[in-house]
Amino acid sequence: MQYARLFRLDGRKAIVIGAGSGIGREAALALAAHGADVVCADTNGDAAAATAKLASGSSIATIDVNDEASVVALADAHADAEVLLHTPAINVRKQIADYSLDEFDRVVRLNLRSTFHVLQLFGRSMCRRERGSIITISSIRAATVEPGQGVYAATKSGLESLVRTAAAEFGPSNVRVNAIRPGVVETPLTAQLKNNPEWYSAYADKPALKRWAQASEMAGAVVFLASDASTYVTGTTLTVDAGWTAVDGRYTPPL
Length: 255
Known about the structure:
Layout: E1 13-17, H1 22-33, E2 37-42, H2 45-54, E3 59-62, H3 68-77, E4 83-86, H4 101-129, E5 132-137, H5 150-170, E6 175-182, E7 185-186, H6 191-194, H7 197-205, E8 213-214, H8 219-226, E9 237-240, H9 244-247
Parallel strand pairs: 1-2, 1-4, 2-3, 4-5, 5-6, 6-9, 7-8
Helix pairs in contact: 1-8, 3-4, 4-5
């Protein structure tokens, strides 16, 4: 074992869906820095191109994960991919009693249905080649919820169930499937909360490290799960939440 090269990804093609911003962008940069040939895929072609420019040598692809033909085209064009990272998600913050069915369908379609479709198509090609690592992005909301996030939480819980099942089904073909469960991360998805001082400070106070995460702090977990450093890791949700779920609900009394 050449431990100095344990995290290297030289010669491996990595598809990053959602590479235009946030966790996807930082992950694409990290994968490229470790030698991967990265395809930066995003619904926003200009954003994907900006990421590819930062990750020297990367290529781009425009994809709408809600459009079946678009996903099929990406999977067919890159059937030789050895790494797949899927990041897109949305959240409509409303209590269950106030949710419309259209809002429910919109959140489930992007967060869960698109994940299933991407996992299914790339899983097939990886299983045929008997090599690959699929990585999805979950959330601490899969484990601990708050009012107004019921549907989002349900999609992330469902995503983690898909990951476990796919790991069981793809494992005999040497294809690994895992999820990363971030805490609160400064991304476009959380911009509304970040810009509200009360929300921002409340969320910063929850984890043990007493702060939000930067998107770049998720990149190490992505590289780990993509690389040979994790060849015996599958069906796992890797929590990267600064201790949020470990200490959630705690009371710190004056001593």
